[in-house]
């Protein structure tokens, strides 16, 4: 095994950045008890601004640096004031999901060219540093960027520790984090301390982004992505999400372990495997402490848009039955004739392919409806299961020569097994930290699993031939449409079955469910299995649509986008999962490939997700259900012989409630006689 001084030094340099980000994660978690997934992205605007001011505007480095740091701090404060403070009393899972949307929103600067430094100047002069130096440690050359990390990161960490221990504001932050109620009684504004914590976290993220930028071969905003965040989260988990010193040291240790692994196994993604094992080991090691620290009576995301059940008398009305049947038939007819409409017929093949991609996302949305909407478990690795299904399909189609319908079932079973394997160790850590485990799996899948010849066949890219029954883009589109319909029907029946009701019960109150003799772990694993089956089946549709694909087609960021999609559509609603896919991916699909389309997707995903989370938590599906209730209320009034309601009345939901609860004329006499 190679273990030399230069390898250790290289690991320490990288580990210092992981440790610094871990300190920011711990700060926010201690103050507000949720995992801040935008910690790595808050400082991206600072790295962009520093490069712009120095390279394009000609500002001295020491003049541009305070401006860039102030931008990172201001952005973090803005996020806290506009999003975190509004959701301050919400379940911690809601705040965590909001931070995921913030992370997506903070990537927008990379798509706005005027904000970025001219790329030719970055290539010619490199990302700006305040001085130039080269030191030799064995075979390693330490340049100015490395020296800055070795000096700045320890100084910032020590200064932060002294600030928290010795200053009045630092002590107030610690008091607010340890006992908010007692801090309020002592006259401390907990919300102001929250803003201060985010300001500090923003500065930490800005420093990390600026120090990391010169190390990138090509300066790209957001180049770190989920990979560096997973490493920082692993360090924070080792520190129990509460100990700054331990988390910082753990970040350095992960950096050294990563460098040693890469020195001995430079290919095949062994580094990602080691990081995944570290994260999972930290989760299991700290399981009890993390569960107690994250105890939150309302931690489950149960604000979804499940369709409110109609009373039996109302559902039995002929007009209501016709409305329900007609709605299903209209949706089915639209799906069938969509590829033949004149608007899409301008480029039938390309449009059919893009619509098949949207269908793939809708199937993943249905799987997340089961796992996150009904199970209350946030998964950030769902698209990795799509990749597992796609690569499994290519291997089975090439080796076993299965018919495509049987291949779809077998691949779904593979996906269910993989999902259970991921969920089995992670299910001990409920809610917040399950998201960390699934994101680590997404990073592992892209960086390691999909690079192994024994798993995917050819890591350089695979090809799957379409069977005779699925020739042409329209054939694959209709195959995807049938799969979506079957998955939706299966999920609907599962929701009404005993296991589905048990999953809902565990989501709403796992303590009461356990007291009633329900196995919470078993219920959650059933949800994992069904969601994994559907995601893998979506991978089969993806495979037949694309035919050629590689590991990079299944980025961890895609799993973030899937979560955004179901929140906008309506978490917990099957129609909402489909509507979310249409809104987030279907609308911009016509401009596929353009920068405007990419910017729209980021803005709609980040801003749209936040707006729906804060103001319309029931999503698009909730609006649809409100419209349905308004129509049904008129049908009920007409059946009861009542006049239509005046236009100026209390809110529609109150009118619907009154109308739906009104007994039939014959029922009133029966109740009086009884």
- How do the strands line up in the largest sheet? 1-2
- The total of beta strands comes to 4
Based on secondary structure, the structural category is mainly alpha
State the end-to-end CA separation. 86 Å
Please tell me the overall pLDDT: 82
> Major sheet, described briefly?
2 strands, antiparallel
Q: How large, in whole angstroms, is the Cα Rg?
A: 27 Å
Query: Can you count the helices?
Result: 31
Regions with little confidence, pLDDT below 50 for 5+ residues: 648-653, 655-674
Q: Helix proportion of residues, in percent?
A: over 70%
Quaternary organization? single chain
Percent strand equals under 5%
Could you please describe the fold and organization of this structure?
Helix 10 (225-238) packs parallel to helix 12 (270-285) and helix 17 (348-374) runs parallel beside helix 22 (472-496). The chain is 71% helix and 1% strand. A hairpin with a 2-residue loop joins strand 1 and strand 2 (140-142). The chain has 31 helices and four strands. Residues 648-653 and 655-674 have low confidence and may be disordered. By secondary structure, it is mostly helical.
